[in-house]
Amino acid sequence: MERQTFTDLVANLPEVEPGGHMGALDFRLRKKIFATLTQEDVAGFKLTPETQAILMSKAAYTYKANGGWGERGWTKAPLADLTQEDAELALREAWRGCASKRQLAALDAAS
Question: What's this model's pTM, rounded to 2 decimal places?
Answer without folding.
Answer: 0.91
